Amino acid sequence: MSRPQPASQHTVRRHNSALVLDAIAAGPGSSRAAVAARTGLTKATVSSLVDRMIGAGLVVEGEAQARPGPGRRGTALHLSPSGPHGLGVEIGVDYIATCLVDLTGRVRKRWLRPSDNRASSPGRVLAKVATAVRTAVREEVPIGGLGVAVPGLVESASGTLRVAPNLGWREVDVRGELDRRIGLDVPVLVGNEANLAALAELWHGDGAADFVHVSGEIGIGAGIVVDAQLFEGVSGFGGEIGHLPVDPRGPRCPCGSRGCLERLAGQDEMVRAAGVSGPEELLTRLAAGDRTALMAVRSAAKWLGVALSAAVNLLDLPTVVLGGTYARLEPWLREPLEAELANRVMSAEWAPVRVVASSLGAEAAVRGAAGGAVRAILADPDPYVASVLA
Length: 390
Fold this sequence. Notes:
By secondary structure, the chain is α/β, with parallel strands linked by helices. It folds into 3 domains: 9-79, Winged helix-like DNA-binding domain superfamily/Winged helix DNA-binding domain (Arc Repressor Mutant, subunit A), CATH 1.10.10; 85-196 and 365-389, Nucleotidyltransferase, domain 5; 206-358, ATPase, nucleotide binding domain (Nucleotidyltransferase, domain 5), CATH 3.30.420. 43% of the residues lie in helices and 21% in strands. The protein is built from 13 helices and 15 strands. The strands form 4 sheets. It has a 5-stranded mixed β-sheet, with helices on both faces. Strands 13-12-11-14-15 form a 5-stranded mixed β-sheet, with helices on both faces. The protein has a 3-stranded antiparallel β-sheet with strand order 7-8-9, with no helix packed on it. Strand 14, helix 11 and strand 15 (354-357) form a beta-alpha-beta unit. Helix 2 packs across helix 3 and helix 8 (267-274) runs antiparallel to helix 10 (291-315). The longest helix is centred in the C-terminal third of the chain and has 25 residues, at 291-315. The chain starts with 8 loop residues before the first helix and ends with a helix. Pfam families: MarR_2, ROK. Residues 18-62 form the HTH marR-type domain. InterPro entries: ATPase_NBD, HTH_MarR-typ, ROK, WH-like_DNA-bd_sf, WH_DNA-bd_sf. This is Xylose repressor.
């Protein structure tokens, strides 16, 4: 067994850079002295690290702070709105979404391109993604990282998309393909769309730290957050609630099973049962009180309650966040879903499950992808600083 070695100067600086930037992010407007007090570092160390981060565009100085009595006034420190941006991409079944967010998580710009990705090979879809990324890059802001949300099983260690049943994809090296096609020379994060949507809700939602975020589109995915941490499972394959069998006699699913939740409560099934052309017409019919549309949504709520009650009984989660199309359907979904959960969750008498609509709706996954790229810099800024100042 090798003996522990002393930390190198570079390792110490890397650790301290993360401490300083976290203090600035948590306390916008803090002075160098306040950051030193918060981190326990010396004022000289903080000043040196802040100067490096200002030089790399991560931090900006504001006006000098008011100070009673004699002494030098400190300047307010903030994350730079013109610093490195996270570029997020979501590959949906019928669209490609992209967005740029700054270091504070503010959206600079977003794009949505309809695209029938079920009818295309991975190569053709990723070529469209590369085009979308090049469009975003023309905004002429520094790109610090690329996050990609995909609707399938993503292996955490490798970033490989193992299978996406609704796209018909298997064993796709999304990260490698985009590296070759785009050549941005930035870190590329690939994640499951439901997990990234749950992270976006955690970062920008109503402050809940324990919830299951269920994204309802053509497919259905769940992101599970416990104690403000995403739970992905051992390999990153957790949260596939859309392929939880809820009716053994139900229809066949592209995953190979029968009676999966998304075949009974997904967007396509609600549209079919309501006899409408798509989600927009479904919403119009619901607003008008159309009985067939209401019954279609109530049926979906029933099956959704079956699946979610299993998750709540297993994990003791207090909140269900409805995302994607479900967020728009919340006024009609919530009541029957709450009733189903009350009947099926053993602890409901003492701890009723709260059902809320996502504050981000259909934008959650792409926001989570972009935000993940930004937060990787905030968590470990020194590699980015070193690359800019090299």
